[in-house]
Each structure stands twice: as structure tokens, then as C-alpha cells.
Amino acid sequence: MSSPITESAGSSGAGGDGTTTTADDYGAHYYRHHLGPPYEPGHPHWTAFFDAVAERIVTTFRPATVLDAGCAKGILVGSLVGLGVDASGVDVSDYAIADGDPRAAGRLRVGSLVEPIEGRFDLITCIEVIEHMAQADAELALDNICAATDVLLLSTTPFDLNDTTHVNVRMPAHWASMLADRGFYRRFDLDLSWLTPWAAAYQRQPLSVREIVHGYEDRMPWLQIEVNEKRAHALGLSHELGEQEQQAEQLRHELLRQRDLVLGLQAEAARAQWEAEDATDRLEQAEQLLTRSRARARELENRLRTLSSSRALRVGQAVLRPAVTLRRKLR
Fold first, then answer.
1. Which domain holds residue 248?
2. pLDDT band for position 23 (50/70/90)?
3. Less Cβ around it within 10 Å: N or C end of the chain?
4. How confident is the model at residue 281 (pLDDT cuts 50, 70, 90)?
């Protein structure tokens, strides 16, 4: 089911096309795999959700007595009881009732909505139920519900066709027309979108055609104005988004250009660093060669001083001096 709320229902007969569901369709497998988070009393998700729904129901309708028609495991009933409401529930699934919310102990019973409902209630809730019933059974269910209350909170998905138990998915106008045949008309002063986008309250009202038309026409122009304004706002946002996308594209190109520039600078810096390191290495080699050359020069100077001061050099010079003098004279 597409709705965030999924209460089971069933039927004892077939619709015009022979398609229907039975209590056997709403056993452990259904509650384990069809409803999102495990549909169990005490589960944080469902407890928080139905507690919030119960608070809105009490605030909106101020009911003393409530029947949840198609109550599943009675989590909403338990939440309403916790707020001081005399609430009860009925569901076709033996499994669901047996595993009911402890807060609703003694207030849940197994039963089909095609059977008459005992007692009367300030409010009956029927949340994501009648789309599970064949059309003929849905009509009987509405007959029985309308006989037991003057106010009905109805929510039935108009969209979710993927759930195999949704055998009678209809648009809200279909159900509104059926309820009008039974003297129930929509309360346009109540917005129940906190439950589902398609939820509505229907109340038994002895309205004339003039009053019915006035109710619809009093509401419709404002809804149309709201739709038009929101559409205009959405178009404006779409244009702004288009401009922002163009700006984002320009910024993306500039970012790519700057990235390429940075990569080029990084490459130049790497090359300059390599050249500097190479020059440093060559300078160190030159300094080492210079150091060795200076050491060699000092070594030669020392050897020369040693040789100059030696006795052998002085004797040699004395012996060679006459020969040198004679050679000069002969020139």
C-alpha cells in the first residue's frame, strides 16, 4: 500500500467482477511484508504515528466514542484509549485481533464490515480499508458505517495498484458520491491532510441542493487560486533554477580552467625544484673538488718548502751553479 497507514479489511462475498479478499489474506505474511516497518504493537514507528493521529482526531472531532472500522491490530484504538476516548475496533483478520495492541485489550473484535455494526459512535474511522473490498461489499460496508454514526473519517488510496489486496482502488469523487447517496457530505472546513492527502471527513447533513452547491463553490475558487499561485511560484522557481544551472556551468568551466592553470604551475614548480636540486648537487661537487684542490696545493707547497730547505738541494745548487754560469757566457 502506498499510504503510510494500512489497516486491513476483508469481505465475505465477491464484487461485480468476482475479485475480493478474505481474512486469510491478512495473516502473518501480510503484516510482515506489506506495510513497511514491522506492523507490531509497541513498534516505535507505528506507535509514534498513531499517537499523533489520535491526538489530531481528538483535537479535530472531540469524540467521546470512536469505532475504528478495519482496525488491524488496534494500534490506533490503543492510542485513542490512552487519550481518554472510549474507542473500539473491528477487523476481519483473526490473526490481527489475536495479536492486538495490549492498550486496547477487550476493545477489539473479529467481524466483517458487511455485517451490521452494533451500537452508535460519535465518530467512525475507516482508514485504508475499503480499497481491499469488492465494490458490492464496499457499498454494504458504507451502509453499515453510515447507520452507526453521523461522522465518518475516510481515507482510501486512489493510487496504489501494486498491492495485490487492493481490489477496489477508486478516486475520492467515487466515494464522495456514494456517501452523498447516504446523506453524508464532505466537511470542507476540515483539512485532514495530516493523515493522508486524500483523507476527508464526511458528516450526515440534511442539505439542500443550494447548500451543497454553495459549499463546493465556496471552496473551489480558493483552491483554484491557491493552485494557480503555487503553479506560478513553481514556474518562477524553475526559471531561477535554470539561471542558476547556467551560472553553475560557467563556474564549472572556470573551475576547470583554474585547475589546469594550477596543474601547469605545479609542473613548472616541480621542474624548477628539480633544476635547483641539480644545481645544488653540482655546486656541492664543485665545492668538494675545490676542497680537494686546495688540499693538494697545500700538500705541494709543503713538499716544496721541505725540498727548498733540504741539504741535498743546497749541494745540488752549488754544483750546478758554475755550469749555469758557463752556459750563459757561451751564449
1. 226-330
2. confident
3. C
4. confident
Torsional sign, CA 94, 100, 106, 107: negative
Helices in the chain by DSSP H: which ranges? 28-33, 44-61, 75-82, 94-98, 135-148, 172-181, 209-308, 311-330
- Please report whether residue 95 resides in a domain: yes
CATH of the domain at 175: 3.40.50.150
Number of Cβ atoms within 10 Å of the Cβ of 144: 17
3-class secondary structure, 24? helix
**Distance (Å, whole) CA 41 – CA 64:** 23
- Partnered with residue 151 across adjacent β-strands are 203
Whether 166 and 30 map to the same domain: the answer is yes
C-alpha cell at 209: 441542493
Residue of higher predicted confidence among 300 and 174: 174
Rounded Cα distance, 151 and 137, in Å: 20
**What whole-number distance in Å separates Cα of residue 114 and Cα of residue 69?**
11
pLDDT at residue number 117 = 97
**Cα–Cα distance measured from residue 77 to residue 86, given in angstroms and rounded to the nearest whole number:** 9
261/31 Cα distance (integer angstroms):
61
| Claim to verify: residue 55 and residue 102 sit in the same structural domain | yes
Please tell me whether residue 282 adopts helix, strand or coil conformation: helix
10 closest CA partner among 89, 88, 110, 108: 110
DSSP assignment, residue 87? E
Q: Domain count for the chain, please give it.
A: 2
Query: What pTM value is reported for the model?
Result: 0.67
Residues 72 and 191 in one domain: yes
Share of the chain above pLDDT 70, in %: 91
Q: Strand 151-155 and strand 200-204: pairing?
A: antiparallel
